[in-house]
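Predict the 3D structure for this chain.
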Amino acid sequence: MASSVAQSFVSSSHPMAHASTAPVGRLSRGRVLVSALVLGAAGLLASAPAQARDTQHFLPIVPVMASTAASQRLGKDVAFFFGDKQPYERIEKRGWARVNPKTNATNKSDAAACRWVFLSALRELQEKAREYGANAVINIRSDYDNVPYSSSEKYECHAGNVVAGVALRGDLVILHPKN
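Done. Predicted structure below.
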């Protein structure tokens, strides 16, 4: 069957196929057969499903927030409260925000990539809070693929071979001290 496929291929695509009815030499048939097999194998590989890694992690918040990287990247002008803790009695809601940053995870451990992208997500929430005149983001919860996960102790991160991502949602508020 392979030789008939190769012969058919040679007959229709060889430059001399239409100019002469002389048979194609053995060397040409062999090259065409190898080419057809290589192209067929490449097609099979290209049509195989890709195996992308998407590992779900639930990682602790406290070590990230206590890190030097957090104090350098976030500062102190916007407070963050995770889960459903109500930090003050008087809260003036300004709006809400959802962020979904990604980071390069190549040559990084999942934990390192997740820490970095978690801080990036908090920084984006902080920027939104500033835009709305808020001094805090409360009710922060993970919201990866629009599936809420609320915890005062952990955040959700998804890591793959190339990219890691964190999705967070929170309420942008002004916290007023208790009187």
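The chain is about 35% helix and 25% strand.
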